[in-house]
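Protein in question quoted for reference:
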Amino acid sequence: MYWLCYHIHTYKKTTVALVNGLVMGGGAAMVAPLKFAVVTEKTVFATPEASVGLHTDCSFSYIHSRLPGYLGEYLALTGARLNAKEMIAAGLATHFVHSEKLEDLEKQLLNLNTGDESAVRAVIEEFSTDVQLDQESILNKLSTIDKCFSAETVEEILKALDSEVSVDGNQWIAPVLKSMRRSSPTGLKITLRSVREGRKQSLQECLKKEFGLTMNILRSVITGDVYEGIRALSIDKDNAPKWSPATVEEVKNEDIDRVFEPFTSGHELQVPSDDSNRWSGKHEHTVYAKSSQ
């Protein structure tokens, strides 16, 4: 998956995603980096991994850290959902097309018989509609989001939200607090650090880091929260996970450091170190084929 994420980001050919429903986590990583991401009124985006004790991965520590202000931290820590209009405004999608036109758009694209970027854009724009944010959109709350989610730690972010929740017009904060407080405390701390580090890391560095985090989380290096989260939300569906530790205050910084310890070169994710190996669509043109010769 991480190998694929790298090539989705750096692929030489013109790419188009047609998104007409839920697009979350790894699925969203197949959409946001593309040259053209077409969304509809049925599209819903989210990165809810922290809520089950995982972290925002599949290149999203790279993507989220490059969104406006601290919107990335907000999306990563809360698992908040964005609609199509919000995806476009945030830079996570490029065009809005009504769902009833999507099939015709797909046919037109297939009939193009060219990957020329201008030609693809022209076809999409025949079907697309300009959209504006709804008045109640969370993206109209960016000043408050930046104020709260720019804090250094999860504890400080929660404290900032607590201080803002009673301000007139901030009714949206109460469900945000509820969502964060029922999420894995360890997952929240790992996720925040990963996105913050992503602000200074390259795509390759983010992917290597995310791969290591996922492996260490699945190995329960410091906690089995991810398995408890999956049990509570997907298997037993009692929505009552018993996190360990139970609060963010109990999560030790030295334990988070252990999860972030890099692998040795022989065990870390192998991705090209520079963009000279950008993929043309054929395996024989990749660094992987060259290294096996």
